[in-house]
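Exercise: predict the fold of this chain.
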Amino acid sequence: MRTTAELREGFLSFFEEKGHLRVPSASLVPRADDQSSLLTTAGMQPQMPFFLGLEPPPAPLTTTSQKCFRTVDIDEVGLDGHHLTFFEMLGNFSFGQYFKEGAIAFATEFVQERMRLDWDRIWVTVHAGDPQLKLGPDEDAIELWKAIGMPPERIVPLPTSENFWSVGGPGPCGPDSEIYWDWGAEHGCGEPDCAPACARCDRFLEFWNLVFMSYEQHADGTLTPLPTPNIDTGMGLERGAAILQDVRSVYEADGYQQIMGWIAAESGVAYGDSPAATKAHRVLADHGRGMTFIVSDGVTPSNEGRGYVLRRIIRRAIVQARRIGLPAVYPLTGVVAEQMRDAYPELSQGASEIEATVQAEEERFRETLERGLKLFEELAGSDGISGEDAFTLAATYGFPVELTVELAEERGQAVDVDGYQVAMEEHREVSRAGVGGELRRAAEFAAAAGFEAEFVGDRKTEVITQIGALAGLEDGLFLAKLRESPFYAAGGGQVSDQGVLVLDSDESVRAELVEAYRFGDDQALLFRGSGFSEGDRVRATVPWNVRFPTMANHTGTHLLHQALRDVLGDHVRQAGSAVRPDKLRFDFTHGEALSTEERDEIERRVNAKIFEALPVNVFETPIDEARKLGATMLFGEKYGDIVRVVEIPGYSTELCGGTHVSTTAEIGAFAILSESSVGSGARRIEAVTSGDAWAYLDERSRELDTLRAELQELRKEAKKKPAAAAATPADPDADVRVEGDVNVIVQSVDGLGADDLLDLSDRFKQRHAPAAVVLGSREDGTVHLVANFDPAVAEKVSASDVVRQAAAPVGGRGGRAAHRRRAVRVLALDYGAARTGVAISDVTGTIARPLSVVERAASPAGLERIRELANDEGVERIVVGLPLTLRGEHGAQARETEAFVEALRAAVSVPVETYDERFTTALAAQGGGGAPEDARAAAHLLESWLARTGSES
């Protein structure tokens, strides 16, 4: 036994031989009822429910290798050879079985016979007693160590601060005995009292702690014996490996050296080349392990909680990577996964998702890192970094304040952290006024209601129920909890339901559902309306025309997932989804764009399963049984003991909490709208089913019919004029002159008409971009002039002015300014206080089609929905119809729309403009098609806007 892997397996196997059950490591994310830490910090932490008697243990004796992460050490990592954030704790646990004698005997046997350590270099410590706890020295432990062969001079009594374990308050506790390794007198302080826990030197390394959990500590500090004493031990795997390999630093042991070897090969800088290189290697090796395991347990980077811890270590690693020339940090996750896959198989299963998560965060940070470091360097000459500057580095450039402090300390600068906190709190106060504040308010309301709402929407869309709790809010809103609720709250990719609440005794009293909030299996509902009270009997309804297409899209998503795996391979895994009434979106892991053949085959396979009319079975089962059925489980998702399975027999089995159709035939049809990239190693498919699929396919069929007709006409024209077509002359050479960073082309090309001259200017501008092109031509006694500028040039010089000045000497005839509009995707909104129609242009910026309807668009939820639509569709501009009066005056409706536009501009990152919509609603009402009237109105609005902007270009 010498390597880290051999020590881990040797420990677990040893205790299996002694009758212990080997239990897999618990997640780094603690259980929901464990609020003691953000991440699991000790091997015993997952065992606490068993020690506290809250749950029965999986066996009376267990052994684990528990993954742990200590956030308090993040800033210390790299500064010395022993601080770590991520580490593994080997443990053996006895729940009412053996006690001190067994724990000491097992530890001695393992150290002597399996680790084969020099017993003369082993020391132990014991509890020296504590008068306040009314405990004397742990004589039992002292005698047991003596009996096992430990010389009395190497048994060191230490105070409660060193050798008594507790949870930090009321709960199980007890004295402990720690095992130390002696590196030798040459590494000590030389003082005669040098011994384990010496504060003057690091001669002694504690590597195994045996906790004799024998008491319960009460709120007043007193102790009473536990009915059954327990054993909790923990050996640090990394420290044990360093001892076995006779290296003073854990970073010099094989587990870290393998990672550092890869870092050195990629960067050209080895561990130990310089102090800076040594720190960088330590940070990268430790944080590389930490980020890999944290992401594997379902955490993603964010600005709060565990996500913030993950973001900190990724960004800290990126800064250190830059210092030694390591091109990228995210491949580290693959190195770690490969090294640790035997002990933690989940790393191999999720390797691509882990890498993609870290890569996305790295790409975001690197975009601003250089500019942030530039600002940081500009502050080098100041006495310190102000709170405002620290906040700017965090908010604008993504520098966690801890990273700013660390970098500043390296050059002897202080950071006004208090000032930073003030600026950050001001920022948070602004944020709390938004959606986050609403969510917190709903969570507090749900918790205070005193009961859990029962979701019945997977079985029915209308239910007679009771309002169990109600809280009135501002602007005609109120929060409610129903005893039974048909309303689905967003989760698992499926969006929240729309719906209405009607008073059972008076149908005129109604309220519309604004938002459904999910809290585990519970929910709270936000309504707009009045006349309701707590205890009222009500009818809650989800419109079938909203629920049915949502169910069809969700079941279609399951078929798509399996079809992707069938066509592309088993490496395909779900990386995100959005199931809405109008369409579905599915993100998946795959390294390249789909070919036309692959896309067609995927679409064919999904439709084949739809036409087979397969049943969709939904049932609950123990998670182990679900695994036996081969159910697909989402990466990073945490599941309970009982799970909900959605099965399409013979084809797809997934864990899912959403709503589904009863047979695949109800989906009707499936059509892929688009396939695109969403980052390295991930792709996105958007598709439609049911009525939306029919409408899309019908529209595509009509477009093809039109194109066929146009093609036939072109063929006829081509047959009539073959000679003219063959005689088309080649373009003349452009006379290019460079002015600054612009290619200027000014020349005469005789014999061309106005349109041909414009086309030639387009070709010149494209070939010689960035270009400013001015062309003239004489044709049948007429002079034509064209000025065609790139957008960057057109911002500085007016093409129209150039044409007018050039045309003056020839009588001012035939001039044209040709700064044509670039094609952009545009979202159009036909705003209404209750319902807002949405339309979208195609990628060429020329065709408009109805998209959907957004309820209460001016509400925070409505604005968020529009922001999501803009992001999902990749739009670059939003146009909102302005309902002027027939005389062009701003009435009350127009003023309300303008207020909505101002709120929308604050919510989205693309330009928002208004456009006169006086006739679009009437035109929409005359039109047909399956799209909602509001969406058709938006499409007419967009068609008009596109036509106007096209004619102006």
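Check your answer against the key: The CA atoms of residues 513 and 527 lie 5 Å apart.
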